[in-house]
Structure formats: C-alpha cells, structure tokens
Amino acid sequence: MADQKNLHFIFDDRFHPSSSISNVVGNSTFGEILHKRTKLSNKIKELLFEMTDIPVDNFYLIRDIADIENLRQTIKETSRHSIFVHFMSYAVIINEDHFLLALKKAMYIDTIMTIHQNDPLIYYFPEGSGYLNFLDHVSTRGNVFYPSNFEEESVLKPNDFVVDISKLQNFLQFFSGGFEARHFNALKGDLFTLTKTSSDRSKMRKEHDYYHLLPPEMKGWFVAPYNFTNNERVASYTMERLNIPDMALQWIHGAISPNDLATFLDKVFFFITHRPRRSVSKDSYIKSQNDLYYTKVLERINTLKQLPEYSRLHMLIETGTSYNSIDEVFADYNVLYNKYASYNQEFYEVIGHGDLCFSNILYDKSTNLMKFIDPKGAVQEEDLWVNPYYDLAKLSHSIFGNYDYINNEMFTVSLDSNCGFHLDIEIKELTTSQAVFRDKLEQYGIDIFIVRLFEASLFLSMLPLHIDNPRKVFAFVLNAIHIIEELKNNGK
Predict the structure, then answer these.
(1) Strand partners, 425
(2) Which SUPFAM superfamilies match (predicted)?
(3) Alpha helices in 321-389 (DSSP H)
(4) What SS3 class is residue 184?
C-alpha cells in the first residue's frame, strides 16, 4: 500500500468584503471576521488540527503577494509526495463531516480538482509543480479562477459543505443563524425560519409566552415566536429568520461609527421612553430593586464560590488585585449600592426586554431596521414588569463595559508595574462613541452613576454562568473591579 501523501492547507485571506458586508464587519478581511468568538481563519485551522484521520502537515495563511512568494519558496523545498488544498477565506464550513470526507478523497487525486465548476472556493492539487503554476497565475493576474472553468469530472464531491459568504444573502443568513443561546440544545432552520429546541422547557415556554403577553404597541419591536411544542424531553418554538446582523457583531468589528451609534440610540431610546409604565409603592419598588441588584448578585457569588474552579479564581483575585476575595469586591459594591441606590425619587416599573444587550438587538444601520430577540420571558402579565434601569444597565455593559469584546475573548490580561493584573481590551478608541451614550442618558435625565452601578452588578452576577471559560470569568471580575473603583473615585 502506498504511503499517505502529506497535506498542505493554504488559507487565502487576500480578500476584503464588499461595501455592503463591510458595513457590518468593518474593514476586515474575511479571515479576520469573528464568528461565535473565533476568527474564521482560526476556526478552520482548529478544525484541521483536531482531525485525526488526516494529519495536516502545514497550515499557511496568505494575505498579500509577499506571503505568496514566501509560500512559493517553501513549496519548492517540499517533497513531491504532497497534496495542496487552496481554500478561499470567504468559504465557510457548514458540514464538517462532508469536509473531512472531501479531504480524505483528495489524498488520492491525480489531477487538479475543485469544489464547483464555475465558482471554485477550494482547489485541490495532487503535487507541487501544478500548485506553483497556480501561484504564478495568482501573482500575475491577481485572481483565483484557474482555469476559467472546470469540467464536471474535475469536481470533487461531496461539495455541499461550504457556503460563499462574499455574497450578501449568504453572509447574512450565516451570521443571523449564529444566535448565542446558553440554554439551547439545538437551533435549526431553513431559508425563512428558525426553530429553537431545548431541554429547559420552562425557559422555552417563558420566551414564547412573553411575546404573546405583550401589549399590541410593544409587539412590533420583537421577532414573533409561534408553533410552541412541549413533550416530556424538550420544548421548541419557531420564528421568522431575519437576515439582519446583531449589534454585537457590528460593534466588535468596528463597523459602528459614533454617528451610527447616535442613530441606533435614537431608536433604542424611543423604545425606552415609550415602554408602558406603572406606579408602584416605595416598598414594592425597593424590594424588586434589591432582588435584582443585591439578592441576585449575592446568590450568584455564593454559587460561584461552590464551584471547583473558584479556588483558582480566588488565588488570582488575592494575588493580583487590591482585593483578597470576591466577597471583598461584593462588599465594596454593596457600600455603593446602599449609599446611592435609594436616590431614585420616582417609584415605577416598565415593561422591559430584560436582557437588552447588543447581541439581542438585530440592527440594519442602512435601513434603521431594529428587532429584539431573546427577552427574559414571562408566563403571566405580571412577569413583564421590570425595574426601569435594567435595560439601560444592559446597554451600558455593552457600550461602557466592553462586554461584547470580553465575551468574544478580545482581551489580554497583563501584569502592571506593581505586579497587579490589568485588563486590556483589544478595541479601537471608543471615547467618542461612549460620549454619545452619555449624552443620550443626560438628555433624558437618566442618572449615569446609577446605570453604571447596576452595570457592575451585571458583571458580578454573570460570573458563575460563564465558568466553562475561567479566563473570561477573571476578565469579568477585573472589569467589575474597574467599574467599582471608578465609581468610588468619582462619587456622585
């Protein structure tokens, strides 16, 4: 039996999206676009090196002519007993099993093959000389159609495992299907609908019923769920697939300018200021506020401390911050809460979303179309009512608190000159955009200190929910400490 050939995988990331797509992801190449917290270039690389059936000898990333020339020199020194796979960065894998099968079959080809006759997203080369000719073609002509088309017998199947996201419709469909949902076991759909299925049947019922309990004037803000089903194991509901990117995707890619944010906030604050409201007694207001911003936080911290991962987190807090434990962090938060949270002179509640962060807001900045997804849920009308600051704190933790950058792991933790840990967010300068949000709060007479105080509670209460990623949890701790210290220093 002949020895298995070596596999060399080339990820061609020389391509920038069209203007309609760059409106969503900024000036990134396709490989730099984040999907579910991972760059597309890293996603394919991780998939390749996880495969055991086909050992990948080398992964090459090319972004310009210099990279191509370096690759040419490497290939000249490579054994002829090799297979070369040239993969366009605007191709994304949608069926990993079929992708693996195609690579297995590629190990035995003896002629140049591709994935589609007239739209080659992937090329397969059985030896180095043919691939060098291809690189010569790319270097001199600047395009990748080589040859201009293929015969049908030159198409390697299966070829149904990728989608071309350089096409706007495909891009929007791919990313609109990427809703982050911690409790969901399955999210499936077609061109026009999405169906969510989960073993957390109670949560599914709440999400479905929330929409149908809303007053008519509120329903237009939300994507409507329907066809609720519930059996002994799982529950599900269906909703329209809207090929609209969420705000978090656009925000972390730097596609939202200060002017874009101002337009976005105009519409969000129209929702905020037109939510139904009802007066409540002072005692009722204080109780619900304490439940949300004190009791819930304390319960979540106690949950965190019971987890096996907490011992290491405790060590990091103790040795690398000015606090000795998470309890001390909460104690400082509690001092601020007790001192300032009672400043409110109006006692009322609103019908709110309950989780109005950027990832739950679908937004098309070219048309100003906005829809909300994944509300907190309700099984009776009383469940719709919430503290008026909660949705604002959720917005703040995306704009001031950099939640979406941390959640997508766009950060580093470093040691400062005093050997303390410092959180560095991998973002462009956001001061101007944050000032837009600050001005909007002031315009409507909303106390920014209270918004940020309640924002700090969000970062503390989310800690046990993300314990599957301890690095991210520590970043949330450092971020909460930063907010608390800032509030302590600035006061009201």
Answers:
(1) 411
(2) Protein kinase-like (PK-like) (SSF56112)
(3) 326-340
(4) coil
